[in-house]
Amino acid sequence: MRKSLKLALIGAAILGSLAIAGCGDNSKPSGASSTQESKLMQTIKQRGKLIVGTSSGYPPYVFVDADSPDKKVIGLDIELCKQIADKLGVQMEVQDMGFSALLSSVTSGKVDIAVGGVNPTPEREKAMAFSDIYLPTEQKLLVLKKNEHLYKDMADLDGKTIGAEKSTTQETTAQSIKGANVIGLSSVPDAILQLKNGKLDGIVVEGVVAKQYLVFNDDLALADVQFQGAKKVSAVALPKGSDDVLKVINGIIKQDTESGQFDKWVDEYSKIAVEKAKK
């Protein structure tokens, strides 16, 4: 009898131990999932490289260094991406393309992040994630200097042909002009050429960028036209569900904003763009 009781107690103890072990095993996947890296973070680390998409011709954000052997893209947004790559402990690769293809390259996985004065609009936020914003500015109207006096307000643009880079917030702003004929172009340099050739009456351009083109194009000017609600900010675009990568990017943006680094880059790359344009 005592032997049977003893065996029963031992059996109960073993079952209790197994039950406790089972509970411990079930808790492990939950703990592991909370620290799991996002798909983007895993891809970047496994590759050992951060692939950055951009659309050059947008100084001081991004533009081609024509003096470099490989015609590399430089600018303040490239400096930002270098910091991101360094923080992640990987190399950086830049892929230059038209802006109309840039954001779709993020959602398709062709690039890891996209920069180049990218504005995080509500429509874009439906398809991808965006970092905290930086460098707020305004949309401006670039015209031939000889015609500057003709454009004082929005009413003066009725019936005029206005250009802007395709798929940008500048194109959206241009489309809001009542009675204007809006033409989307592949890049800002292309739009400048069309303006000088008389095929456009004006171009909607981000203020910071417009000032760069004024420096080395003395036949251009900024019109007095004010676009209502056309404030412009920049952000880094990346795939949704990449919160760990986003946290790294936001930390760097916060640091560069508070230290005044963005303003320093604007000055630095504005000067570089001007010097290279003189050659």
From TrEMBL:
Signal peptide positions on this chain: 1-21
PROSITE patterns hit by this protein: PROKAR_LIPOPROTEIN, SBP_BACTERIAL_3
UniProt subcellular location: Cell envelope
Boundaries of every Solute-binding protein family 3/N-terminal domain copy: 49-273
UniProt keyword terms in alphabetical order: Signal
Keyword Signal: yes
Name listed for the protein in its UniProt record: Solute-binding protein family 3/N-terminal domain-containing protein
